[in-house]
Please model this.
Amino acid sequence: MASPSPTPQHTPVYLVCGDDDFAVKSRAKQLFQQWSAELGGLDHETIDATASNAGDALTMLGKLREALNTLPFFGGGKVVWLRDCNFLGEERTASAAAVTETLGEIADELKKFSWQNVRLLISAGKVDKRKVFFKTLDKIGTVEVFAAWSMEDKDWADRAETAALGAFRHKQKAVSDDALAELVNRVGPNPRQLETEVEKLCLFVGEKKQIELTDVKTICSRNKSARAFALGDALGDRNLPALLSRLDEELWETKFDKDKSEIGLLYGLISKVRAMLFLREMLREGWIKETRDYNSFKAQLERVPADKLPTDRKLNPLALNPYVLYKALSQAKKYSTAELVRALEILLRCNQRLVSSGLDEALVLQQALVQIVTPATLAA
Model:
């Protein structure tokens, strides 16, 4: 859901690419429709360019040459769209000598081509910027790259908020700060699902102009990454029934998802406790104050003296995603500093037991979480 860039008036060639598949397809479709309307005529061509082997790629490149060199039958202009091209990166098909050679030949042809009333649009995934074909497109036309959002990106929540606000404005809806923050938390760095959830919310509220927190909680789903947040949030909320329920859900998913493991869940919990401990110290130092407004919280983070913090990213709270810190802000006060230090010690022992003992992983994690959530005075 990247905001569309203005189309340059004199750019006959346009490459839209990147690993954000949803944004690439949306932008390319927008450009094709815009160019088709501008040029008029009925001769616009779309060439599906998803190749399974070098032979397929060569066939598609042959169709591209033919389309560019066939004059519009009904007059007017012509748009040629090489759609979903998957042989411009480092794939096996792209590395085939015949494909590389043909792309080089077409690159030379594009440099000399007369672009009067003809435009070329190419949409693709990741592309190899070292190759002649990309360099030619970048020189004679315009290249837009859409990078996928990732939890590792410090600004993914900002990008998600911006995209959601733009989508709501397009549908003539407003959204409260709390509702927007909850929406981003539930969806995570997933543009396609974000678009879907915005659509669901707008249909759900009907004629109502303002979307509130209760609307998001009622109708919006949580994706896989957001469910991982839910486990940490239950720990932060010190809600033992919810925490054990979320843990059971996550442990069940580890049986079917090779990317998830008990150790991975443990590291996520360690990160949550560490975030709360950082926040308690930042509150004690007076660097930040409690607030329910996410934008106000981000502004406070920008004023935190960087020279007072560790250079090691693992120990630097500002290296964490701002939204993760914001969610943990109110939760940090549910634990004392001593309890959070104790929680890290418990999780360390839990790590050692998971790695070195033959005990049931679920039981080990459950015991650790019960110890953390139970007040020390009751546990004694």
In short: The first strand starts at residue 13 and ends at 17. The chain has 17 helices and seven strands. Residues 1-8 have pLDDT under 50 and may be disordered. The chain has three domains: 13-145, 156-219, 233-379.
